[in-house]
Amino acid sequence: MKDLLAMLAAFIIAVIFIYYLKLIGFYWNPVVIYSGVGYLLLVVSYDIFRYFIPLSRYGNLWRYEHSSKMISAMGALLSAFVGTLLPDYKPYSQILPSLLMTLLMIFFNIKIYIRLKKKNIIEKP
């Protein structure tokens, strides 16, 4: 229950943050803000709605979830590092590492799917 409350709080705070930024005007590049907050809302929405997935269907979703969240955390660190190291190239110095890590996330999720399919672990509906 604490997890669900934390997700709802993060969702509400992100929505308030977007409203607040529109109210005071953007002081960062809107591309960076919208992509970051959009991804946060996507992950939090999944975390909220995963409680409604029946355990019989949840199966191997945790593998994709864990892989995606770990790669996302590394992507956030890489984007912050490159954005700080190359400030003259903003917003590209922040967006391109995120794009790279998103492609890496897709690659690893496909790799997980293929590995599970080879082992016949994937359940068919």
Give the structure's gist in a few sentences.
With 125 residues, the protein is mainly alpha-helical.
Structure description:
The protein is mostly helical. The chain folds into 2 domains: 1-52; 54-125. It has 5 helices and no strands. The protein has helices spanning 2-24, 30-49, 55-58, 61-85, 92-118. α4 runs antiparallel to α5 (92-118). The longest helix has 27 residues, at 92-118. It is flat and about 50 Å long. 5% of the residues are buried.
How do the helices and strands line up, and which of them pair or pack?
Blueprint: H1 2-24, H2 30-49, H3 55-58, H4 61-85, H5 92-118
Helix pairs in contact: 1-2, 4-5
Helix content: over 70%
Tell me, briefly, the overall form.
flat
Strand content: under 5%
Distance between the termini: 29 Å
User: Low-confidence parts lasting 5 or more residues at pLDDT below 50?
Assistant: none
Radius of gyration: 17 Å
Largest sheet: none
The number of distinct helices, counting runs of at least 4 residues, comes to 5
* Total domain modules: 2
List keywords for this structure.
2 domains; flat; mainly alpha; 125 residues; 79% helix; single chain
